[in-house]
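Operator note (shift B, R.M.): manual run for Enoyl-[acyl-carrier-protein] reductase [NADH] requested after the automated queue skipped it. Running by hand, logging everything below so the morning shift can see what happened. Input copied straight from the record, untouched. If output looks odd, do not overwrite the archive copy; leave it for review.
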Amino acid sequence: MANDLLKGKKGIIFGALNENSIAWQVAERAHEEGAEFILTNAPIALRMGELNELAQKTNSDIVPADVTSIEDLENLFNKAEEKFGKIDFILHSIGMSINVRKKIHYTEANYEYYHKAMDISAISFHKVMKVAKQKDIMNEWGSILALSFIAAQLSIPGYNDMSDAKSLLESIARTFGYYYGVDKKVRINTISQSPTKTTAGGGIKGFNSLYDYADLNSPLGNAPALDCANYCIAMFSDLTKYVTMQNLFHDGGFSRTGVTDKMMHKLGFE
Ligand code: NAI
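Run finished. Output pasted below as returned.
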């Protein structure tokens, strides 16, 4: 289903780790739609080597960057400038919490880990855009996206400090979106995706139950990663030029549903 929606567009894709990653699916779809891009991930993630396969398939270069390091980001954007001149899109598809990994309860947070989660999962979005803006690398009407989750709005046990990170991420999109829009007509949004079976998703305590719950409690069921990628493509394309500063739910209607008949039935209330 390729429609040349991104023909001639250049970009940077953060966060493809393996073929389950949402960013991996975005890269494959962006390639099909005619985009050229640089793939980037943390040096430690690149050691696994799986990204080479995606780079070959999509004819892309890989540039390592720890997203919390301004120095790494400056190097990455310099490489992008050398290769493409200006760019049109950026995907930030990154999340990590050590409190989640170590199963430390939210109310007992380790603050060193907490800061790290905010830095990697949220403040890094600000850093990426700060470096992009300083370099003036984005074309007018360029589109920048990050991936979020409904735990930014609703309390979801087990999502831990990532809930706070996602709230911050969405606020950064809104606030940076104002300034980048006024100065350079660049648009910034977050896509709030259904639970998805990926490496980051699987780290959440009770993830499988959360996945099944969201699936049952949304009229359309959970949105698959490929459909999330399709939404990202639409947001990078010129068909969505005036959408900015939004948190866009891509969740089969979960965020607007009190309860479904399917759920009532499951609970035995009928
Ligand atoms: P994933 O584990 O495939 O991707 C997370 C990526 O973050 C990995 O590629 C990892 O290497 C990268 N990363 C971690 N620390 C980094 C650092 N310091 N510098 C650069 N990159 C770093 O998992 P997934 O699910 O594709 O995650 C992508 C985004 O989607 C995340 O923001 C996640 O929170 C979000 N999301 C995921 C959902 C899910 O259920 N899987 C639901 C809603 C949002």
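Quick read of the result: Residues 15, 17, 21-23, 41-42, 45, 66-68, 93-96, 120, 147-149, 193, 195-196, 198-201 surround NAI (CB under 6 Å). The CA atoms of residues 120 and 137 lie 22 Å apart.
Leaving this for review. - R.M.
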